[in-house]
Fold:
Amino acid sequence: MAYIPDNPDLYGFLTGAAYLNFIADIYKVPLKIRNKRIEEFADKYGIIDDLGMPINSYSHGMRQKIAIISALIHEPKLILMDEPFVGLDPKASHTLKKQMREICDNGGAIFFSTHVLEVAEKLCDKVAIIKGGRLIASGTMAEVKGNLSLEDAFLELEE
Structure:
């Protein structure tokens, strides 16, 4: 299992590489595998040249990328994400969407919160709508939205 917060609270005094190795140590990811994954993910997210810098010098988007990589480094089957696209540039958002789809297509599950309903509509197999802390609708995308867009279905449920 892994968790990606919308505002990651990382150890700012560590470099990106040190932080990712720290997380890999926690999950007991073998050195050879972790190095390959760190390099692959850092390259995909465009931060490979920044891994030697302290995290406290990173922008919000770069911190989000480190949080994403740290969550994926041990190949979890379940990931919880809170507004995972906040702060990401379009390329990184596209990369994350592809990775999310791959994880689900390979038997994993992702629970994520978002206020961008178009993203949920494109990515999710199932959806739940929460209003005021209460579940007001859930099911497959087709069950919840019918012939409407997810946004229109949400607005109807809000009334």
